[in-house]
Amino acid sequence: MSNKTIIKPLNAISDKGLNLFKEGYTIDEQAEQPDAVILRSYNMHDMTFPASLKAIGRAGAGVNNIPLDVCTEKGIPVFNTPGANANAVKELVITSLIAASRQMFDGVAWAKTLIGQGDDIPKLVETGKKQFVGKEIQGKTLGVIGLGAIGARVANDALELGMDVIGYDPFISVDMAWKLSRSVKRVHNIDELFKEVDYISIHVPLIPETKGLLNKEAFGKMKDNVYILNFSRGELVNDDDIAMALEDGTVGKYITDFPNKKTLEMTNAISIPHLGASSEESEENCAMMAAEELMEYLETGNVRNSVNFPDASLPYQGHPRVTAFHQNVPKMVSKITAEVSDANLNIVDMTNRSYKDHAYTIIDLEGDISETDFNALVGRLDAIEGMITTRVIK
Ligand SMILES: NC(=O)c1ccc[n+]([C@@H]2O[C@H](COP(=O)([O-])OP(=O)(O)OC[C@H]3O[C@@H](n4cnc5c(N)ncnc54)[C@H](O)[C@@H]3O)[C@@H](O)[C@H]2O)c1
Ligand SMILES: O=C(O)CC[C@@H](O)C(=O)O
């Protein structure tokens, strides 16, 4: 039997990423017992996790397609690729903002209806174009909800295009706060944004707290004829409420990257088939970043850009290594080191990092350790109350 590490792609993943898995790896779309999976929007919620699964690499930002609680319970880290597709999404948001504002989507669709009108077409265009008079975005106000990798870029570029920008993000990271232009007016109450803006672009993750964030109550606080852009997730917007708001003119246009049976039938909704991250550059960036994160974890146990494990790394210098994912409760580190010491093993280096209710410990050990001694140590560590998974890397 092959000892290769099996990577199973669950979606089409750019070759630039898959080709990074070289010696020691096999890419197998049909694998039943993969060591790791790499995916884009594949829905893992209904999937039975194979016992072999050690890590999940999401080539993208949103992780609502992955059951994070199950992964954490099983000690499986989920990696994503922060910022790797942000430019692609930002470009499509800015494109759509201008195109929708200038009635381009409707105008282009109407022009197609002139097929068959022969030489009359130029004249029909000149008389018909008055239906599609739009508005320039310069001098208008854009509200950006969520100032992360995408939202901050959208906000900064909208300023460059002559817009006023109001941003709302109660959890903005220090890094993003530095990157955000000082000309973006930040508000601490989302209602202040709702009442001031002509356009809203939403860039938050889909989590229970944000589901249906844009609903009837929110639309009631907005200016009439506001344009809403949703390149984040369909469920952030209540479909029935926005259908009514589009009917009564509170919302002028709804531009969504997440069409469904309701949005496709809404008047004044523009449905884009989830193209936000679909650029060659973004697909390559995401696939490469996810592949690198997976390889680093599988080969060294180091954790970078996980959404359910703490970031943790020790330079890998070839020492036998043990990693442990466990509950973040008092005395865990002392219990782990006591077991190592009782097994007559010597620690060369170690780190312990926590994230919410869980923690991750990496221990480098001295000398050559026999299979039997390693198995004995792992047995001891697994027996500690609160231990979830242990791995040996040598
Ligand atoms: N259309 C696409 O193809 C596409 C591509 C990439 C990402 N996305 C979606 O866009 C989302 C954002 O991506 P990103 O790369 O900017 O992520 P990010 O993590 O860099 O930014 C998300 C921001 O939302 C903020 N936030 C969280 N809860 C909030 C709340 N209740 N109110 C206001 N702000 C809140 C966070 O503080 C963070 O700054 C992803 O979660 C994903 O769902 C879609
Ligand atoms: O992989 C994709 O095509 C879309 C990814 C995007 O929705 C994301 O959340 O990063």
Describe this entry's structure for a reader.
This protein has 394 residues and is α/β, with parallel strands linked by helices. The protein folds into three domains: 1-85 and 277-309, Rossmann fold; 90-271, NAD(P)-binding Rossmann-like Domain (Rossmann fold, 3-Layer(aba) Sandwich); 312-394, Alpha-Beta Plaits (2-Layer Sandwich). 32% of the residues lie in helices and 20% in strands. The chain has 13 helices and 16 strands. The protein has helices at 15-18, 68-74, 86-101, 104-112, 121-128, 149-160, 174-179, 190-196, 216-220, 239-248, 280-300, 332-342, 371-382, and strands spanning 5-9, 25-27, 36-39, 55-58, 78-79, 141-145, 164-168, 185-187, 199-202, 226-230, 251-256, 269-271, 321-327, 347-355, 358-365, 387-393. α3 (86-101) crosses α6. 39% of the residues are buried.
SSE layout and pairing:
Layout: E1 5-9, H1 15-18, E2 25-27, E3 36-39, E4 55-58, H2 68-74, E5 78-79, H3 86-101, H4 104-112, H5 121-128, E6 141-145, H6 149-160, E7 164-168, H7 174-179, E8 185-187, H8 190-196, E9 199-202, H9 216-220, E10 226-230, H10 239-248, E11 251-256, E12 269-271, H11 280-300, E13 321-327, H12 332-342, E14 347-355, E15 358-365, H13 371-382, E16 387-393
Parallel strand pairs: 1-2, 1-3, 3-4, 4-5, 6-7, 6-9, 7-8, 9-10, 10-11, 11-12
Antiparallel strand pairs: 13-15, 13-16, 14-15
Helix pairs in contact: 3-6
